[in-house]
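quick one, 771 residues, struct below
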Amino acid sequence: MIHKLIWAVSALAILALAGLYLPLDFLRPRVERALERNLGRKVEVGQVHLNLFGVPGLTFEDVVIHEDPRAGIEPFAYVPALNAGVRALSLLRHRLDFSSLNLGDATVNLVKSSSGTWNFQFLFEQASKGRSGLPGIKMRGGRVNFKFGDTKSVFYFDDADLDVSPYGQGSAEVRFWGAPRRTDRPAREFGHLFVRGNWAAPTVKDGEPRLDLRVELERSALDEVSRLADPRGFGLHGVVSFQAQLGGPPSALKIAGGLQIEDVHRWDLLPQHGGWTAPFEGVLDLIAQKLELASATESASSPVTLRFGASKFLSSPQWEASAQLNRVPLSALLEIARHMGAAVPAKAAAEGGVSGQVSYTGAGGLTGRIELQDASLNLPDVEPLRSKLTAVSIGDGMIHFDSHVEIGPRESAEIEGSYSLSAPRDWNAPRNLDIRIATRGISVADMRSFGLAGIPVLEQTAQGSWRGWARFRAGEWSGEYDLQNARIAVEGLAEPLRIQSASVRLDGKRVLVGRLRAREGATAFTGDYQWDPDAPRPHRFNIVIPEADAAEVARALAPTLVRSQGFLARTFGLPPAPAPDWLKKRRVDGVISIAALTVGSAAARIDRARLLWDASVARLVGVDAHTLVDDSDEAAIAGDFEIGLRGRVPHFKFDGKISGLRYKGGEIDLEGSIEADGLDGEILESAHALGRLRGRSVSFAPDAEFRTVTACFEMTGSAGGPQWKLGSMEAVQGGDTYTGFGLSQPDGKLVLDLNHAGHPARFVAGLAGAP
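---
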């Protein structure tokens, strides 16, 4: 007996396995007719196999379920493999009917016909007319497309599971699970939508079927959900989920549910801590594709009232969302904006309330008007900003705002501006912002209360006050303002530049500073300055210095002139530290004049000198100067003066001439070059000069009255004083001409060894002073 049972089970297993592989093509016509009776539409089947696993039935390959002609010509579904359970009783009546259809990973097209009826309604309608009714339908991991007439929607469901369990006549229990997608966007990680409920057949009284459904969206990225409505997205951060109950006819489904938003930073600032739960209610018309939702707890005390409406949401979405704000805490909105990517300072704190209405439509964008009431903004280490009322209007892709702002107890400013909401939606894009600030006088430090950076000149100003206006538009600043009692740190100067007063004009990238009155250390000056980043030398100026001391100027420029070395570097003679970045980038073109320049015991006036500064080389070209004696002009100085800044100490070089230098009762002219290294006494010890001299009426010694004198000279500095060599010398005394050379002596005397008509002559005198 046991052996017979084993043989029977084995035979059934072999038969079941054979049924999977042996085609039963002779059954195809009968199978197709049976499916057409059950589904009420034409069906094409590929191969047919017997399936004895699970519910006994048949397996069909390459099944095409055609569409009802009223809904279109594209098939209703493409099914790679369909498992059909057979009704056993139908076989006793010599009739093949199916109790269940498992579509597997089929692709299904849900179509709305031109009459407004969906093709699945035709399916229920036709099935209800048959004797056996609609079989149970399943789908696992399939795809559901939406069509409107012959036009396919961009929306579809992926990874879709479907269970339709008919009961009664034309009624069914429906369960659906799928991930919403758009065909115009790559697939993203998106939560699934779960629908379960009942489809009740139309009654004679109502004439419409009835739906009772529960719909849930599992936790999904808020930005991805928003992209279902607008593929550009809104840069939203957080997680959203919802659940809703729907009931009624398809043309008037009443909705009640709740929306949950979580994981947005600092939601604890809102009345609902840890997240935001928004109960909602509304009506859905599946036939007309129209949806209306609103907050379910509308009241005068509610901080936020939301409304949402959509039409043609599966074909060509048109939608509108609005929010009514009633004293919503400004601090909460500030944190939300920061989390959405806005450039809000990390330690900014805000108080006050926001009221008004804002709406958004896919076609018209954001519109509305809100007011910030009793608002204040606090940033670390600056005075708080306060405004009784700030009006904000939104429309035509722009946000406009206007406010009178108080800074501290005595200062104020008028602020107006706009922000473009046009794509790309970048909260930090500078070209989206247009803001104008006008004031009758506030401190530079208080400007930081606005959280703005980059206002030319002001951004480098450590202290001071300004009045006027500045505007930021299209990524650039413009404006006109006066600056007073300011301090500006300038790289290369020993201490900040103190500006008593200046007028500033901003013109795009250019900065023009006029009527400048300033001081660097003990040196005061006036003039103007210009910054033009597109010029070969961006820094340009013209300054006039009434009085200066060379030692004080050297002290002020010490960070530029000297690069200090450590003990080991000096001991081992290591090369100097490399030039700092600011020096490598410095490009200057300016004009300098100094009414009185003191150099030790001497004095001079620089009428004009043009400064051309390129990184480690600064040149004063076209120097026009005079030495001064008792405030009267003496010798004229003309030429080019160069300062090399590559080494540890500066290298000086002058090429030019000195004309009319008083010397021993006469005048001499010097022309040539002189070079020296270092500062102070180092200059005299390292100096070396070469050139020619010409003299007139020089009383060199009691016995040497030279009417004219010419010579080549070389001067070498030393600790004991300068050493002179005179060569190719020619001196005229009376009617006699002397030639020869001259040398300075250790005792400070200058000895001239000359020759006249073969007769030698020696003249000795001090280098300076009386003969």
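The CA atoms of residues 545 and 758 lie 56 Å apart.
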